[in-house]
Specification:
Blueprint (H helix, E strand, L loop, with lengths): L1 H30 L11 H20 L6 E6 L2 E7 L12 H9 L4 H4 L2 E7 L3 H9 L4 E6 L7 H6 L3 E4 L3 H13 L1 H7 L5
Parallel strand pairs: 3-4, 4-5
Antiparallel strand pairs: 1-2, 1-3
Helix pairs in contact: 7-8
Length: 192
Amino acid sequence: MFAASTKIFSIFKIIVITNIFLVSIIHAASQNPNPSSDKNDNPKADKDFYQYAFDEAKKGLAEGGIPIGAALVHNGKVLGVGHNKRVQEKSAIKHGETDCIENAGRQKAEVYKQSVLYTTLSPCDMCTGTILLYKIPKVVIGENQNFKGNEELLKSRGVEVVVLQDAETTQMMKKFIEEKPSLWNEDIGEKD
């Protein structure tokens, strides 16, 4: 009798554990029914939206500033664009990404969680923190040859990082760093 009830109890435990496992799988699937489907997971769209960031970088350079631009896109709509304004506004924190998010205005948390940030240069620690704070799930970077920010931290926190290695962006940034090394070092917090 004792052996039979122990066997029944063991079978009951297996059934309960299996049901819990299946319920958790069903719940996870209902949260994201098609995990490979992403409205912004399109190289052509990435390149098209990236152009907004690149145009902002050129605007910043024309203003005498540092050529880094960004664009925040939600479901195919540009919410905001911005560029580095540390020189123009004598700001300590107006990098391209932070200016862009500021210009996008206040958004609900779920909007950020469904957005893509396009930036011309690999994000520095401050901009990486901003991306993580707002839980932006995808960042498209123009280039990371002249400066590689904290991409590994973004990836480790589940952010999809796409690097375009855009030749025009790389050349623009390289030329700027060669012509204004002191200003560049100041921007990234390095000693001259």
